[in-house]
Amino acid sequence: MNLNGVRVALLIEDEYQILEGWYPHLRLQEAGATVTVVGNGLKDTFESKEHYPMRADVGAPDADPADFDAVIVPGGFAPDNMRLHPEMIDFVRKIHQAGKLTASICHGGWVLISAGALKGRKATGYAPIRDDVVNAGGTWLDQAVVEDGNVITARTPVDLPQFLAAIIDYLGREVAAKSGAGHLEAANA
Fold first, then answer.
1. Under DSSP, is residue 45 helix (H, G, I), strand (E, B) or coil?
2. Measured between alpha carbons, how far is 96 from 185 in angstroms, rounded to an integer?
3. d(Cα 179, Cα 66) in Å, to the nearest integer?
4. DSSP 8-class letter at 9
5. Homologous superfamily of 7-188
């Protein structure tokens, strides 16, 4: 799948789960997407739970949701830290409200909950956030990946291949719809 021209925001904070941060970053780049790492705006480099650094390209206060086609929230303990920064939650909320892909894995669902993105949605994540999803008005499903409209969620690192396959498929459908619409408009001109 060629995702050239697709712009994805990857949220990052200290104590992110290393695979859940790096696998989406590298896999989406491999598919042709531009991945921008969005931090909290207070510093430039964030440590994983395993002390592996990831550098932010921009802080959430300076990131414009209109510049992105999707947002991905990795897990680990990072989502708990992200929720301390209203700009990060607002960034996710605006992307979701614009109907753009809003995705999370593991504890990342906490950020989607805070952004209001799981109300009335089917979702999954790391088992301990089940009650949080339900209390936020979502329906919990214990499966590797759940896609409900513009929301894609996954459980844990072992589900990363399925998670990224679903994200790439979703974004590929968006690219095809846009290019198909463009071809149709050109044919009707």
1. strand
2. 27
3. 19
4. E
5. Class I glutamine amidotransferase (GATase) domain (3.40.50.880)
Task: Specify the pTM.
Answer: 0.94
Amino acid in position 112: L
Q: What is the pLDDT of residue 70?
A: 98
pLDDT category, 179, cuts 50, 70, 90?
A: confident
Domain locations in the chain? 7-188
- Quick count: other Cβ atoms within 10 Å of Cβ 118? 30
- Residue listed under structure tokens 């929720």: 83
For residues 154 and 105, give the distance between their C-alpha atoms in angstroms, rounded to a whole number.
Answer: 5
What are all long-range contacts of 89-97, with beta carbons under 8 Å and residues at least 24 apart?
Answer: 89/114, 89/115, 90/60, 90/115, 91/9, 91/11, 91/38, 91/60, 91/63, 91/65, 92/11, 92/117, 93/117, 94/65, 95/9, 95/65, 95/68, 95/70, 95/71, 96/71, 96/150, 96/151
User: Catalytic amino acids?
Assistant: 107
